[in-house]
Design goal:
mainly beta
Protein backbone atom coordinates (compact mmCIF):
# COMPACT_ATOMS: atom_id res chain seq x y z
CA UNK A 1 0.00 0.00 0.00
CA UNK A 2 1.15 3.53 -0.78
CA UNK A 3 -0.18 6.59 0.99
CA UNK A 4 -0.84 9.84 -0.88
CA UNK A 5 -2.31 13.25 -0.07
CA UNK A 6 -4.95 14.41 -2.56
CA UNK A 7 -6.46 17.89 -2.61
CA UNK A 8 -9.93 18.35 -4.08
CA UNK A 9 -11.60 21.78 -3.96
CA UNK A 10 -9.13 22.98 -1.28
CA UNK A 11 -9.93 19.94 0.90
CA UNK A 12 -6.95 17.62 1.53
CA UNK A 13 -7.49 13.87 1.89
CA UNK A 14 -5.07 11.11 2.85
CA UNK A 15 -5.64 8.03 0.70
CA UNK A 16 -4.02 4.62 0.50
CA UNK A 17 -3.57 2.96 -2.88
CA UNK A 18 -2.76 -0.69 -3.41
CA UNK A 19 -0.33 -1.47 -6.22
CA UNK A 20 -1.53 -4.47 -8.22
CA UNK A 21 0.46 -6.94 -10.26
CA UNK A 22 -0.39 -7.82 -13.83
CA UNK A 23 -1.81 -11.16 -12.61
CA UNK A 24 -4.46 -9.53 -10.41
CA UNK A 25 -7.92 -10.00 -11.92
CA UNK A 26 -10.51 -7.22 -12.11
CA UNK A 27 -12.88 -9.28 -9.91
CA UNK A 28 -10.36 -9.41 -7.04
CA UNK A 29 -9.80 -5.66 -7.42
CA UNK A 30 -13.53 -4.99 -7.15
CA UNK A 31 -13.89 -7.35 -4.16
CA UNK A 32 -10.99 -5.80 -2.26
CA UNK A 33 -12.24 -2.30 -3.03
CA UNK A 34 -15.66 -3.08 -1.57
CA UNK A 35 -14.44 -4.89 1.52
CA UNK A 36 -11.02 -3.56 2.47
CA UNK A 37 -10.70 0.07 1.48
CA UNK A 38 -11.83 2.70 3.98
CA UNK A 39 -13.30 5.92 2.66
CA UNK A 40 -10.83 8.75 2.23
CA UNK A 41 -10.65 10.86 5.36
CA UNK A 42 -9.97 14.60 5.40
CA UNK A 43 -6.56 15.59 6.71
CA UNK A 44 -7.37 17.90 9.65
CA UNK A 45 -3.92 19.54 9.58
CA UNK A 46 -4.45 20.67 6.00
CA UNK A 47 -7.81 22.28 6.77
CA UNK A 48 -6.60 24.29 9.77
CA UNK A 49 -6.73 28.09 9.43
CA UNK A 50 -2.93 28.29 9.48
CA UNK A 51 -2.49 26.04 6.44
CA UNK A 52 -1.71 27.99 3.30
CA UNK A 53 -4.13 27.28 0.46
CA UNK A 54 -2.57 25.67 -2.58
CA UNK A 55 -2.36 27.92 -5.64
CA UNK A 56 -4.63 26.59 -8.34
CA UNK A 57 -3.22 26.81 -11.86
CA UNK A 58 -5.00 29.19 -14.14
CA UNK A 59 -6.59 27.59 -17.20
CA UNK A 60 -5.24 30.47 -19.29
CA UNK A 61 -1.62 29.68 -18.40
CA UNK A 62 0.22 28.01 -21.27
CA UNK A 63 3.28 25.85 -20.75
CA UNK A 64 6.45 27.79 -21.51
CA UNK A 65 8.48 26.50 -24.42
CA UNK A 66 12.21 27.18 -24.19
CA UNK A 67 13.72 29.20 -27.00
CA UNK A 68 16.18 26.91 -28.75
CA UNK A 69 19.82 27.60 -28.02
CA UNK A 70 22.25 27.71 -30.94
CA UNK A 71 23.56 24.26 -31.90
CA UNK A 72 26.31 25.72 -34.00
CA UNK A 73 27.65 29.17 -34.67
CA UNK A 74 24.53 31.26 -35.37
CA UNK A 75 22.18 28.30 -35.91
CA UNK A 76 19.74 26.11 -34.03
CA UNK A 77 17.44 23.13 -34.44
CA UNK A 78 13.72 23.66 -33.91
CA UNK A 79 12.46 20.77 -31.77
CA UNK A 80 8.89 19.58 -31.21
CA UNK A 81 7.53 21.24 -28.06
CA UNK A 82 4.89 18.48 -27.68
CA UNK A 83 3.86 15.21 -29.33
CA UNK A 84 1.77 15.67 -32.44
CA UNK A 85 1.37 15.27 -36.17
CA UNK A 86 2.97 17.48 -38.83
CA UNK A 87 0.17 19.10 -40.85
CA UNK A 88 2.28 21.29 -43.10
CA UNK A 89 5.91 22.23 -43.63
CA UNK A 90 5.91 25.87 -44.75
CA UNK A 91 9.60 26.18 -45.74
CA UNK A 92 12.09 24.36 -47.92
CA UNK A 93 15.79 23.69 -47.53
CA UNK A 94 17.78 26.77 -48.50
CA UNK A 95 14.93 29.21 -47.72
CA UNK A 96 15.83 32.38 -45.83
CA UNK A 97 13.56 33.05 -42.85
CA UNK A 98 13.11 35.97 -40.47
CA UNK A 99 12.46 35.94 -36.74
CA UNK A 100 8.78 34.99 -36.26
CA UNK A 101 8.25 33.33 -39.67
CA UNK A 102 6.07 30.20 -39.51
CA UNK A 103 8.21 27.14 -40.27
CA UNK A 104 5.64 24.39 -39.85
CA UNK A 105 2.20 23.57 -38.47
CA UNK A 106 1.95 20.86 -35.80
CA UNK A 107 -1.38 19.35 -34.75
CA UNK A 108 -1.47 18.43 -31.07
CA UNK A 109 -4.56 17.69 -28.99
CA UNK A 110 -6.78 18.60 -31.97
CA UNK A 111 -5.26 22.09 -32.15
CA UNK A 112 -3.08 23.52 -34.90
CA UNK A 113 0.13 25.03 -33.55
CA UNK A 114 2.27 27.25 -35.76
CA UNK A 115 5.95 26.79 -34.90
CA UNK A 116 8.01 29.85 -35.73
CA UNK A 117 11.65 30.77 -36.14
CA UNK A 118 13.14 32.40 -33.06
CA UNK A 119 15.79 34.14 -35.15
CA UNK A 120 16.63 34.88 -38.77
CA UNK A 121 18.55 32.28 -40.72
CA UNK A 122 18.63 29.82 -43.58
CA UNK A 123 16.86 26.45 -43.52
CA UNK A 124 19.76 23.99 -43.49
CA UNK A 125 17.85 20.73 -43.04
CA UNK A 126 14.25 19.54 -42.65
CA UNK A 127 13.85 16.35 -40.62
CA UNK A 128 10.07 15.81 -41.06
CA UNK A 129 7.42 15.81 -43.77
CA UNK A 130 3.66 16.28 -43.85
CA UNK A 131 1.90 13.46 -42.00
CA UNK A 132 4.84 12.51 -39.76
CA UNK A 133 4.14 11.87 -36.08
CA UNK A 134 6.65 13.41 -33.66
CA UNK A 135 7.38 13.22 -29.94
CA UNK A 136 8.44 16.03 -27.62
CA UNK A 137 12.03 17.01 -28.30
CA UNK A 138 12.23 15.47 -31.77
CA UNK A 139 14.24 17.64 -34.20
CA UNK A 140 12.05 19.26 -36.85
CA UNK A 141 14.05 21.89 -38.76
CA UNK A 142 17.67 23.04 -38.54
CA UNK A 143 18.45 26.69 -39.26
CA UNK A 144 21.94 28.05 -39.85
Amino acid sequence: MKTFKVTVENQTYTVQVEELSENTSQESVNASTKTNSPAAQPNPAATSPTAAPAKEPSRAEEPKVETPKPDTEGGYTLKAPMPGSVLEVKVGEGDNVKDGDVLLVLEAMKMENELTASSAGTVAQIFVKKGDTVNSGDPLIMLS
